[in-house]
Amino acid sequence: AMLQAKEAAEAASRAKSEFLARMSHDLRTPLASLHGYLESLQLKEAELSPVQRSEYLAIALRQTERLTRLVSELFELAKLEAQETRPSPEPFAAAELTQDVVQKFHLGATRRGISLKLSPPPALPLVHADIALTERVLDNLIENAIEHTPAGGGVVLSLGRKGQCVQVDISDSGGGVADRDLPHIFTPFYRAEEEKESNSHAGLGLAIAQRIVTLQGGEIQAVNKPDGGSVFSFTLPLEQL
User: How far apart are the first and last CA of the chain?
Assistant: First the structure.
């Protein structure tokens, strides 16, 4: 038993070190870019044309937005990890909330040439969960699905009853998740092998979604579809009458 405890502590310590290393990398990259463009604006001010100047400023602004988002996600994850975020569960209709969130992302998806829709849900009992936190989970999973779906593809949400829960499925027509990445997909800052090449925002969206679902007494998982693309599913406990 002592050996098991020691191994668990070592694994936790390793995971923490990896997390800190990835976090530093993800913060350093936009900071270096931001610093570089601001320095150029200051040093080469006389040589830069108005077009170049506004281009440099636009890039610097984009990097500050990226940093702001990353830091606020870090703060959100830290609060979830420290269990400072406490759900306030109440009964609500999962289908209505899902419809509202789909509506919110509809325009952005259309602009990217992606169809985003909710399959007509069956009649379902009310769930007992925190509305705002559940909306956050839907936001993160829909954003993730859109991010990994090429133009011309589609993201479909569907709801169904699963035992004492309602299950929400978010299905995309992207390239699916590599088998070696599947077990780590909800690890904070985990970066899939092919994403390491591009400097894409590894982010914390899925890790945050996973913490919230677990906090509310649900489960979350990701699987690949046989015909390509992946499905992210999470459950919400039913209201106990």
Answer: 41
